[in-house]
Amino acid sequence: MTTSVPAPASPAVAFSVAGVSKDFPGVRALEDVSLAGYRGEVLAICGANGAGKSTLARLISGQSAPSTGRIKISGYDKEVTSPADADDAGILFMHQEPVIVDEFTVEENLWLKQLSSAGKNRSWRVIPKRRREESLEALRTVGMHEVTLGQLGKTLTPGLRQMLALGRTQVTPHRILILDETTASTTEEHFKDVEALVERERAAGTCVIFVSHRMPEVFAMADRIAILRNGRLIEVLKAKETNREEVVTLMVGEAVRALEAVPTPSFAGIDPVLEVSGLCSGSARDINFTVHPGEIVGIYGLVGSGRSSIARSISGHQNRDSGTVKLYGQEVSPKSPGAALKNGIAYLAEDRRREGFVKDFSNGDNMTLATLGQYSKFGVLNPQQERRRVDELIERYKVKGDGKTLTRSLSGGNQQKVCLAKWIEAKPNLVVLDEPTKGIDIGSRLNIYQIVHELADEQKGVVVVSSEAEELLMICHRILVIRDGELVDEFQSTESNTDDLMRAALGGEL
Questions:
Q1: pLDDT tens per residue across span 270-300
Q2: What is residue 439's three-state secondary structure?
Q3: What class is the 274-506 domain?
Q4: Each residue of 56-68: b (16+ CB within 10 Å) or e?
Q5: I want to staple 206 with a disulfide (CB 3.0 to 4.6 A). Which of 81, 201, 214, 418 is the partner?
Q6: Model pTM score
Q7: Can you tell me the distance from the alpha carbon of 51 to that of 60, in angstroms, rounded to the nearest whole number?
Q8: At 185, is the pLDDT very low, low, confident or very high (cuts 50, 70, 90)?
Q9: Distance (Å, rounded) from C-alpha 330 to C-alpha 324?
């Protein structure tokens, strides 16, 4: 299967960025950036929220035009000023939020770019039968062995939606591949498929631009690392000649140390906030566990293990088949997120863009969405009181912009802090966080870790679902491991490591 168009017989430079700046209303996103990428290399672009990483990726791919400066794609004579130009130049841009049409089949989504230009003389959704084996091979290449070609896009989990989008690399000719936070939705086992895909691209002479917040992934794949801070290119380093601490220091301007594992306090004689007994929901079966006031409990497992089914059924986002959920000893059976919140349970969804906030609302509107009653009397809203509280929340959670800023315009980390503020403002007794740091840079991750610890200090019960073992070991007191829908093991964070969790999740194999 062809993954790249023939590379031009020119110098090894794949693209060059010369003196590029980009202005948005009131904001300079990039300032005089000059950078080159080479054929057969992986160039990582790293930086904190708002550093300009995605802006640079969008400029190279023709999604946006620079305010000043020039971008040159080797082997392409024109400037790339549109996605159509990018296609002609051999640039394939993979977004953080995968472009998947819910009502299209897996196969139709796989060939989406080709189908959109199929011509007027035939149905553009007709895929030749001769491409069936090519489609199946593309799915196998990205680890989607259990997915069928006729399955609808809307049935896929966020991780599988991302892997399906990555499958397009196998059926779309290209010379430059841009991965803009495309591993944010994938889990540790699927990252191996991404790593293998990137290695094949490198061997084929593709220039891979890898935008990521995940340092282990950057060092696993990158040849060079370009570091942006506040819109400026700070340094370009060879991955083999640097380390995580140096890169993080350059990203944020000061050294950031990983949090130490939190010691587990004694909960002897203390009634639990949450008791889950015999829970069956989705792929989860007969789940039993407790969470005490001030305790942070992690839930770890691979894709399809049932970890998110547990979180969603507790919080009213998914029906339970059987079992009981008790909050402070009282059984609760919320049928909706609103009912769960009335019972004192808040849930931060894995997919913040689809479930976390209203895209056309401002920060203020989103932050107070779950608590409007606090600022109303006899059904009449007090806007002054609401604005004062929004200002306090923006300052407390360190959210960029003000109450009138549209949440959709913010970086992923700031969007997540808006979502957290909304639910925590409702003063729940139990907070369930599903992949709370997905697609978020190191600085914002530390902000969110601090918020989680503050919740525990306030004697809230906290459940954190994550596909990152290292993250759970840093922020949780106790970690439950789910495999094939069953709770198979439990670990104390201070007495365990990532190998322990991954072996349990994989059934003893690593």
A1: 899 999 999 999 889 999 999 999 999 999 9
A2: coil
A3: alpha beta
A4: bbbbbbbbbebee
A5: 201
A6: 0.59
A7: 16
A8: low
A9: 10
